[in-house]
Here is the input.
Amino acid sequence: MRFPSASTLPRIWKILSPILVGIGLMVVFALMAGFAGGACHCVSPVAVFFPYTAIARGALSWESIGDVLFILQYPVYALTIARARGSNWKALALLILLAFHIAAVVLALRVYQHG
Here is the structure.
């Protein structure tokens, strides 16, 4: 079995660290959505924090895909921002992700409002 050399470890860490940050964010936001959803007895907090999951589960009844999207959403966000080169590209990536997230939240809330 070969172990990664010292030169490959920084490259591995550049990919692994944003994924771990994204997993941490997913856990924090899942707890926040759970507590907020328990307080209002509604699904709105889940739709706000995890809109792609809400759309897949609510509108399309794709529970398995919704579960995958739940796990991957924030690691993909973190990896996208981390892999952008330069502060201008990172800011642009953040704005694009934010725009898509907000659009998905609006769609997810409409799905549950009319569903």
Q: What stands out?
A: The chain has one domain: 11-114. The first helix runs from residue 9 to 40. The CA atoms of residues 45 and 77 lie 19 Å apart.
